[in-house]
Amino acid sequence: MKGTYMTAAEAMSLINSGDHIFIQGSTSIPETLCAALAERLRDIRDVVIYNAFAVADRPAPYCIEELKDNFTLRSFFVSNSVRHWLDRGYGSTIPRFLGEVPALFRDGTCPIDVALINCSLPDKDGNVSFGVSADLATAAVECARVVIAQINPHMPFSFGDPVINIRDIDACVEVDDPLVEVPTAVPNDAEVKIGNFIAEIIPDGATLQIGVGGIPNAVIRALADHKHLGLHTEAMTDGVLPLLQSGVIDNSLKKVEPGKSVASLALGSRKLYDLMDYNHDMIFRDVAWTNDPFRIAQNPRVVSINSCLEIDLTGQVCADSIGERIFSGVGGQHDFVYGASRSEGGISFLAMTATTNKGLNKIKPILTPGAGVVTTRFQTNYIVTEYGAVDLRGKDLAQRARLLISIAAPQFRDDLTRAAVARFGSAFLRLQ
Questions:
Q1: Same domain for 85 and 214?
Q2: Annotation says 234 is catalytic
Q3: Contact 205/300 with Cβ under 8 angstroms?
Q4: Quick one: 64 and 202 in the same domain?
Q5: 394-410: pLDDT as tens digits
Q6: pLDDT tens by residue, 80-122
Q7: Out of 39, 65, 200, 234, which one is annotated catalytic?
């Protein structure tokens, strides 16, 4: 009987050998269910586990040596809880733009037998919300044969797609599991400079997509005097709270969901989760909906702000790997870069400090061998470091090289210039 409460161990009896299991992510990994799953995997075989973007405070309990032959992990985004497992070759990644993953569930390319999710307490009508993580969970719940849910008082009730009636859940497990809280990244001096460069270019009335980390937070801090900004993003973070509370983000000029802040997932502090709880001014949607470039483009003046790991002199951007090692995933970078390019007055920014923490150059003659191209040279718009912001749109390869060298760390500019001369010849030299 659906909507039945039981223990986590009892719920795991609904999982069988050969099943394909989706585990919810963001900051809402259903940890009690995952621990029970680890025990269940001792008795079953040929299981496939799908996971995606998530922030965990512990390694995944099923990623232990004695279970390595019982299941395969297939990841759409390498999260911190499973990175060690994938590095050891016990699983692999599925390359796909995050906004296109729900289609893999819906058309059966990646079948889902069981969805493990983390839900709020029920409202008066018996509806629960999987709150901070609509992203892939919406499609997984829709497609799963069996839905197993933690009923968790710490999960906010968010409106939009992550709502399901408790009668449609096959097994409910009461838990008291606090959500992971992600500290607000404090920008360093270089990131503050980058944030200021970007904020100077953003117009009033822009619709923002903002990534996660020190650079996005530096941008947000520099937007305090802007007016009538909107929010249509993949991830909602604590960083936007000051702009929401001050009214700088009022969503008044958006065309898609005007008056509402739109996101697919949230990761932040308890302050953010509490603000989300039964808040009609925020709406969370399936990532296939939020990240649809054509829907994004319906808003005017879309501004996409994302980070990257390295870029070459032609404008090819790597954001998911360190050489051959897949470190994270694509997320929504491509979707929002493309959506911004189709938006009236849209702009996209890809930002990074000019060097790594070890002082290595991030602007390179060619990408590190094995590095993946997330944003192609055909899509790059503004590239920003602490040394400036340059617009590559409409620039030829030699012009791009000259612009990118101008925002590289000074100690690497001579070497980059020699590489550009060797590659682009007189077309580059004439620009001096």
A1: no
A2: yes
A3: yes
A4: no
A5: 999 999 999 999 999 99
A6: 888 888 888 898 989 888 999 999 999 999 999 999 999 999 9
A7: 234
CA 393/CA 65 separation, integer angstroms: 49
- 190-233 pLDDT tens trace: 999 999 999 999 999 999 998 788 888 899 999 999 999 999 99
The residue segments making up the domain with residue 254 are 189-429
Amino acid at the residue 370: G
Q: Considering just the CA atoms, what is the radius of gyration of the chain in Å? A: 22
Same domain, 157 and 211: no
> Considering the chain, what is the average pLDDT of its residues?
94
What distance in Å separates the CA atoms of residue 379 and residue 170, rounded to the nearest whole number?
A: 45
3-state secondary structure of 101: helix
Angle, CA of 157, 15 and 24, to the nearest 5°: 30
- Determine the straight-line distance between the first and last CA of the chain, rounded to whole angstroms: 75
The CA-based dihedral angle spanning residues 268, 269, 272, 274, taken in that order and rounded to the nearest 10 degrees:
140
Q: Please state the length of the chain.
A: 432
CB 89 within 8 A of CB 102: no
